[in-house]
Every structure is written in C-alpha cells, then in structure tokens.
Amino acid sequence: MAPVPALRPSNVLMKTLLGHRQAPEDRQEKIQSLSNAVQSNSYRIDCRKLADCLISSLLLGLLR
C-alpha cells in the first residue's frame, strides 16, 4: 500500500486556489466582489476567526 501524503496548509491553499479557477458561474459574482475588495484594499479580515484558524492548524500540526 502506498503512503498517503500529509495534508499541508500549502496543499490546501493550492487546491482552494485551483477550485476558484473552476468555480461555477453562480459563484463568479462573489469571487469578483472579493477580488475587487482585495485589490481596492477594502477587504477586512476578522482577526478572531483568523486567530482561531491559525491556532487550530498549529494544534493539529502538533498532534501529528
């Protein structure tokens, strides 16, 4: 049996980015809106959600 590669954040990010390229048309408007917000520097990040995700990723990494 072949070993299963570890799921790394960079792999998840790449799959997410590739998924956005192939997004259905009904999501295109939302993607365009987010893209415009990022380009105009008006996109706001929820710091609590970001911190929760980072801490979760760190803890999951320590459990491996």
| Number of E-state strands | 0
Instruction: Report how far the terminal alpha carbons are from each other.
Output: 20 Å
Computed structural class: mainly alpha
Largest sheet: none
Count of helical regions: 3
Describe the structure.
There is one protein chain. By secondary structure, the protein is mainly α. The protein contains three helices and no strands. The chain has helices spanning 9-21, 25-39, 47-63. It is flat, with a radius of gyration of 16 Å. The mean pLDDT is 77.
Write a concise synopsis of the structure shown.
Helix content is 70%, strand content 0%.
Question: Which features would summarize this protein structure in a list?
Answer:
mainly alpha; flat; 64 residues
Note the topology.
Layout (H helix, E strand, L loop, with lengths): L8 H13 L3 H15 L7 H17 L1
